[in-house]
Amino acid sequence: MLSQETSLQNQSVDERFSLVYEELRRIASTLRHAESHATILSAALVDEAWAKLKNSPELAHTTTGHFKSIAANAMRQVLVEEARRRNAQKRGGGHAILLTLDDGHQHIVPVDVQLIDLDTALTELQDMSPRQAQVVESLFFGGMTVSEVANGLGVSESVVERDWRAAKAWLATRIRPDKE
Amino acid sequence: MNPERWERMQAIFDAAVGLDESERTVLLAGVCHDDEEMLDDVRRMVEAHERGDSLLHSGLPALASRLIDGGLASLAGREIGAYRLVKLIGEGGMGIVYRAERTDTGKQVAMKFLLGANMSAARRALFALETNMHAKLSHPCIAAQYDAGHLPNGTPWFAMEYVQGERFLEYFETHPCPLPDRLRIFQQVCGALEYLHGKGIIHSDLKPSNILIDESGTPKVLDFGIAKEFRRETQLLPELRIMTRGYAAPEWQERGLVDRSTDVYSMGVILSQLVTGDVGKTRRRELDKICGKARRSDPAKRYRSVEALARDIEHFVKNEPLEGMPATRWYRLERFATRRRAAVVAGTIAALLFAAMATFFTVRLAREKNAALAEVQRTKLVERFLFNLFQGGDKEAGPATEVRALTLIGRGEQEAKALDHDPQLQAEFYGVLGRIYQQLGQFDKADALLTNAVNENYSAVSLLALGSLRLEQGRFDDAVRIARKTLDQPELGELERAKAQSLLGGVLNAQGKYTDAIVLLKQAWQIQSAHPAAREDLAGTFVALSDACFFQSRHAEAESWMQQAMKVHQQLHGRNHPLVAMDWRALGHIQVQTTHFLEAEKCYRAALAIEEGWYGEDHPETADVQIYVAQVLEKEGRLAEAEPIIRKATEEIKRAYPEYHPRVALALCEMGNFLFVEDRFAEAEPYYKRSLEIYGRTLGEDHLDTNGIRNNLASVYLKQKKYAEAQKIFEQSIDSLERTNLGNTLNAGIARIKLGRALTRQGKYRQALVQIREGCRIVSAIAGPNAEWLKAIQPDLEMINKSLSTKTGSGETY
Question: What predicted TM-score, i.e. pTM, was given to this entire model?
Answer without folding.
Answer: 0.39
